[in-house]
Design goal:
Helix content is 56%, strand content 7%. The protein is α/β, with parallel strands linked by helices and 820 residues long. The strands form three sheets. The protein has a five-stranded parallel sheet, with helices on both faces.
């Protein structure tokens, strides 16, 4: 959840770009800057604020106060604001400019308010994300804009692709991060609208601070009550009310043991721990728990601990904590002895009516008996916080009276009585009737979006998902659809504007309202949508910023789809999710998804389909890496047999299978069996003119085997050939080049050619250091490389001081040295 509080001391950056042209490049740059702990906003951050000022005013007000503006400029202008909205700021345009698009206005706002301004203009051959603009576009206006920049003599950096843009942006002198109290809460305070809970929060505070003298104990309270009663809101309002009393405010959803551990581990980011980029979840989780132990005075909210298994895991983890307060929210009513339960009831009649009166005061149609009508409506809504909030938002949108809303609501109660019985759903019937009344106000696009979101996880949904069209559906503006949902409180934006959430009860009511045909259609759409968004190399840590927030939704939607017997793309998405979990060393979770993906593929495609071979290979790799070679080998051999039968013995896919099986045989010291398979894989690859990079990978594997079987003379030319291919294919600074450099330098060390090994190993490390400078993430092989370099220098007779100086100098290098 990206609800970290925006502190006054943060360095604020606005990133301007046309989505249809630069969406993926913009997101990549945003990830790079956020990795440096800069506060970053893009235009979409301001699109979904119901009842707020115009988009142009929101952009103006933020840019006026921010520290820097980055403009990515190409051939597209993007849409223009309405004339009425633009007229207010006409005086900020330079002479001769009478019209501007939103992205151009962002530039002119930065100039007018003298913000730090960085310009990047795409080369003529730049390939846009989409073949055509997604909305209005004015090419001539954009040409005039670029000419204006050139005429003014403003400095700009050209770029030809996404990576070139990222490199240029990262060259800028961005400030060091400014430390702030780590606050991660799902939404801001309601302020005066939070009513009727003053006594409850006072009791909660008293119970949490009862033992003030014990600074090492952990104090745990559980807020329990029925769904929709406002448990999460009460916990969050307590946190905001007492923010000055805590060193950190942290929040984690805990529906299942796995989700609890995952979300606690993710707190490594907001806490700015060095282990943030570690692949293994357990490492990040332990780092978070260690930070909490070392920094007493924190508050941790564990939300929706509704399952006994999740509660048991929470109890176990709390046993490792000390020096802080933990608040659990739950529908359960029995807890461990050390957790004091505090029951939360519905709002008192006066408080519920007061909320409705204040929340709707600006736009409600006033009537003489409003006080009585508010009380009557509050009673009908069961005085449930969730129902009250949605009703107030709908009254505000409709501009109707309380009596008018009551009439609509009562008619909807009859509609839902058949499928929303409290004995079945577990929540008050008012939730369903209020939901129906809110849904009736939605556009078709808004309703369709809500129905798709019902099959995702209750975790926050990243805003970038809305930029992606739902496969196989008519074009609908997903951002406008979300505005519909937020207008009637069916969805809530987080404070950063980069994610939104739908309450789990809203999801449940939505699913229950659908007939079988509509449910199947929306589920299929949600599945295809998440699958289309879940793209990127999971082994590249830079893709995690995109994949991680999609992970819970991929898990949830595939489980729904599997339950309904949807074979594809369920198996594909499960397999992609399994690969991400595997990369993060969450092997048990990864294996479950990979095995299920394999079973679905076998059932839907047949046991000898090439896709089944792909699934077998992926699962076998996991089994090999978890030290189960006996289980992995038959899967590798079965995949090889399938592909030989499907493609013939000399196909590149067969070469891949041979290479994988050979790697297993190598790892189990069956060198004589492995070597001919490796050689055959290389022969096939060279014979069918596979890309040189694949041949280089297999040459490197064979060279490692030859080195391990004491044949360095045979291994060295293969390492050098693989190195030359990688340098030609990826450039001299690619991490794959560094891998072969490390292998070659290790061979030279083993043959006592230390003077030859040193420059190669140093270059090996320089590439990893440059990788970290460019991405903000340490390479996973950096630590191992540093240890090897230390040993090499020691073998060369260097003193401790000389070794430390040589290693320290690596961090000061501007980049890898020219290998030639």
């Amino acid at each position: 959840m990206n609800g970290q509080e925006s502190m006054a001391g943060a360095f604020r950056v606005f990133l301007s770009a046309v989505t249809s042209e630069f969406g993926t490049a913009r997101d990549a740059v945003a990830n790079d800057l956020q990795a440096r702990r800069l506060e970053l906003r893009v235009q979409r951050s301001f699109r979904q604020e119901p009842g707020a000022d115009t988009l142009l005013r929101l952009l103006h007000d933020y840019i006026r106060e921010c520290d820097a503006v980055v403009c990515v400029i190409g051939a597209r202008s993007g849409a223009c604001p309405p004339p009425d909205a633009a007229g207010e700021f006409a005086h900020l345009l330079p002479p001769g400019i009478t019209e501007a698009s939103y992205t151009q206005w962002e530039f002119f706002f930065a100039r007018a308010h003298q913000r730090r301004l960085s310009l990047y203009i795409a080369a003529a051959g730049y390939r846009p994300d989409r073949d055509a603009p997604s909305g209005d576009d004015f090419p001539e206006l954009q040409k005039a804009f670029v000419k204006y920049i050139e005429k003014e003599g403003l400095h700009y950096a050209p770029f030809s692709n996404r990576d070139a843009l990222r490199a240029e942006v990262l060259k800028e002198p961005w400030p060091e991060e400014r430390r702030a109290k780590p606050i991660l809460l799902p939404y801001p305070s309601l302020g005066s609208l939070f009513k009727g809970r003053e006594g409850f929060l006072r009791r909660l505070r008293e119970s949490l601070t009862r033992d003030k003298g014990n600074t090492t104990a952990i104090v745990s309270k559980a807020l329990y009550g029925m769904g929709g009663i406002g448990k999460t809101r009460a916990a969050v309002e307590y946190a905001w009310a007492h923010r000055e009393d805590y060193t950190a405010l942290q929040f984690a959803q805990a529906d299942t043991p796995e989700e609890l551990r995952r979300n606690l581990a993710s707190l490594a980011g907001p806490l700015r721990l060095a282990e943030t980029e570690e692949a293994e979840e357990e490492v990040r989780l332990n780092a978070v728990l260690s930070w909490l132990a070392a920094n007493p005075g924190w508050l941790l909210i564990l939300d929706n601990v509704d399952a006994p298994a999740a509660l048991a895991e929470a109890d176990r983890l709390m046993g490792r904590l000390a020096g802080g307060h933990v608040i659990l929210t739950s529908r359960l009513d029995r807890f461990a002895r050390q957790v004091e339960p505090l029951e939360l009831d519905v709002l008192a009649p006066a408080a519920a009516a007061a909320f409705l009166l204040e929340a709707t005061d600006a736009r409600r149609r006033k009537e003489a008996d409003d006080d009585a009508a508010a009380g009557e409506l509050a009673d009908e809504l069961g005085r449930l916080a969730l129902a009250l909030e949605q009703a107030a938002a709908t009254i505000d949108k409709l501009r109707c009276s309380f009596r008018g809303y009551l009439e609509i609501w009562r008619s909807n109660r009859e509609k839902v009585v058949g499928w929303a019985q409290p004995g079945i759903t577990g929540y008050h019937h008012a939730v369903a009737a209020t939901w129906q009344t809110s849904v009736d106000q939605l556009s078709d696009a808004g309703r369709h979006l809500l129905e798709r979101l019902a099959f995702l996880a209750p975790d926050p949904v990243p805003m970038f998902l809305l930029d992606l069209a739902v496969p196989g559906t008519a074009t609908e503006d997903q951002h406008d659809a979300l505005a519909d949902l937020t207008a009637v409180s069916l969805a809530i934006l987080d404070p950063e504007g980069e994610r939104f959430a739908v309450h789990r009860l809203v999801q449940d009511v939505t699913r229950r309202s659908l007939n079988a045909e509509a449910s199947g259609q929306r589920l299929a759409e949600a599945l295809g949508w998440i699958n289309a968004a879940f793209v990127g190399d999971s082994q590249d840590v830079r893709t995690w910023a995109r994949l991680d927030p999609l992970g819970p939704h991929a898990q949830n939607v595939t489980q729904w789809a599997d339950r309904e017997g949807i074979g594809q793309p369920t198996a594909l998405l499960m397999n992609k999710l399994g690969r991400l979990l595997y990369t993060k060393s969450l092997y048990a979770q990864a294996e479950a998804f990979m095995r299920r993906a394999l079973a679905i593929s076998e059932a839907s495609l047949g046991p000898d389909h090439p896709t089944v071979a792909i699934r077998l290979n992926g699962l076998a790799i996991l089994l090999k890496d978890t030290n189960r070679p006996v289980e992995a080998e038959p899967l590798y051999r079965r995949a090889l047999a399938i592909d030989e039968g499907s493609f013939g013995p000399d196909h590149p896919t067969v070469a891949r299978d041979l290479n994988n099986l050979a790697a297993l045989l190598h790892a189990t010291d069956r060198f004589a069996e492995a070597e001919p398979l490796m050689r055959r894989a290389i022969e096939i690859s060279e014979g069918c003119f596979e890309p040189h990079r694949i041949i280089a990978h297999r040459l490197n594997n064979l060279a490692v085997l030859l080195r391990d079987t004491n044949r360095p003379t045979d291994a060295e030319p293969l390492f050098r050939r693989a190195l030359a291919i990688y340098e030609a294919s990826f450039g001299p600074d690619d991490p794959r080049v560094a891998t072969v450099l490390g292998n070659l330098s290790g061979l030279l060390m083993a043959t006592n050619r230390l003077a030859e090994a040193e420059p190669l190993m140093r270059r090996h490390l320089e590439i990893f250091m440059e990788f970290e400078r460019k991405t903000g993430h340490p390479h996973r092989h950096r630590s191992q490389g540093l240890a090897s370099y230390y040993r090499l220098l020691a073998q060369m007779g260097k003193s401790e001081g000389e070794i430390n100086t040589a290693i320290a100098s690596l961090a000061r290098e501007d980049g890898p040295r020219d290998p030639h």
